[in-house]
Amino acid sequence: MAKLTGPLNSVEARGKLGGLVYNTWRGISYVRTKVTPETKPPGLREEMMAYTIAAARRWATLTDSERATWYDFSLAHVSPDWTGNDLRLTGYHWYVRINVRTRWHIGLWQDTPPDHVSICGPIYPWSRYDEPLIEVFWTAPESLPDYYYIVELWITGPLSAGRSATIKDAKFFDLRALSEVYCPIPYPLPGTYSIFTRPMTHQGMVGQFEKTVVTVPQPE
């Protein structure tokens, strides 16, 4: 960041021009390089999409009796949506969901449903800004086995102070092992961020979203 005197031959300048951002903070004009925070880790979205396509193709190779076990599974299980309400999936959608998770997590295909699934308990996130990162942490009840759970992170921001974000506003950011208890978000722009986390099992059962909020200040 560079402090300016008479930016762009004016009293002050605000906004973006090319790859630069001009602003004034506490009466001091400055310019910095425009940095857009990552909304997803490189390659992860493509990897998950490839697993989804592969699972859909694999579904087409199942026998009628194998598909019937997934239909029975769908009748016996529901999964919460982002609002916390129970959502009933079809046998096909359970097959794709579970196989994408198991393939990503442990590298295996599962052509018949699991004998049982565990409902994810809550995790408890908190966040802070430690330049140049937003750092997201979480804890989990000891009853949750670390090897069995994944943490999904969604993010929205930067927003102006006072604005309240919901999960509908957020974009997928990352998947982490529960045992990592940490996820960095690099080079955020000034503003208020909401980070939503939820646990899921590698068999596709998901828990509730929990929200943590952090504010990135304007540079001094």
Notes on the protein architecture:
The protein has 220 residues and is α+β, with helices and mostly antiparallel strands. It folds into three domains: 2-33, no CATH class; 44-106, no CATH class; 124-216, Sandwich (Immunoglobulin-like). 20% of the residues lie in helices and 35% in strands. It contains three helices and 13 strands. The protein has helices spanning 44-59, 64-76, 91-106; strands at 2-3, 15-17, 20-25, 28-33, 79-80, 86-87, 124-130, 133-139, 149-159, 171-177, 182-186, 191-201, 210-216. The strands form four sheets. Strands 1-4-3-2 form a four-stranded antiparallel sheet, with no helix packed on it. β12 and β13 form a beta hairpin. The radius of gyration is 22 Å and the shape is elongated. The N and C termini lie close together (9 Å). The mean pLDDT is 76.
Write the layout of secondary structure elements.
Layout: E1 2-3, E2 15-17, E3 20-25, E4 28-33, H1 44-59, H2 64-76, E5 79-80, E6 86-87, H3 91-106, E7 124-130, E8 133-139, E9 149-159, E10 171-177, E11 182-186, E12 191-201, E13 210-216
Antiparallel strand pairs: 1-4, 2-3, 3-4, 5-6, 7-8, 8-11, 9-10, 9-12, 12-13
